[in-house]
Amino acid sequence: MTGMNLNYRQRVWSLTLIMVISLIIFLGIGLNLIKATLVDSSKREIQSVLAFAVHNANVFVEKAERGDMPRQEAEIQVVKLLSNMQHEHAYVWANDSDAIARVHIRPEKIGVFQSSYLRHITALSDEDIIFREATNLKPFSNKKIFKINGITRLPDWNWVIGYGVYLDDINTLLWKYMKTYTLTVFLICTLIWAGCFYLLQNKKQ
């Protein structure tokens, strides 16, 4: 009888251990999948914003090319257009063909030479859009946050235009989804464990 009880306890502990390990594995896999999905979603958002920016900026570029508007006035309109594409800490930035910042959420950056221009314009010679990951100062805060930047080119003027998503925003969404996912996985594992425990109990009897 003692042997049977010991064997039963061993099975229960084994079942519990398997459930805990399974829970950890499922949570790890789920975390990576959700994060990858959110990063891909952010990249699609970046592509959409940049496509919209280039499409609308090209209206003024074409007017200047046709002679319907002076180049200087067209540049003013493009700067105004891109400067208005800001929401909280999300913003579009642009550097002109002289590597001078023309649009940025931080006023002190405007008019300043940007050494990154040559690197970006060279990479864009073979691609319509490139993605770069870096640590940037988040607007309206003194914190440097990891950021995914999408960068494209305004073809006729050779301006470089960028837009990015901060990783802490992604992490906020990740935590939101993860809480629901964790609860779901926990409930499923608990139900499986309860079912197996019930079967072991019946078998013991």
UniProtKB/TrEMBL annotation:
Keyword Membrane belongs to the record: yes
Coiled coil stretches, renumbered: none
Taxonomic classification: Bacteria, Pseudomonadati, Pseudomonadota, Gammaproteobacteria, Oceanospirillales
Pfam families: dCache_2 (PF08269)
Keywords: Membrane, Transmembrane, Transmembrane helix
Source organism, top-level taxon: Bacteria
Domain Double Cache: from-to ranges: 38-172
Protein name as it appears in the record: Methyl-accepting chemotaxis sensory transducer
Taxonomic source organism: Marinomonas mediterranea (strain ATCC 700492 / JCM 21426 / NBRC 103028 / MMB-1)
TM spans (from-to): 12-34, 181-200
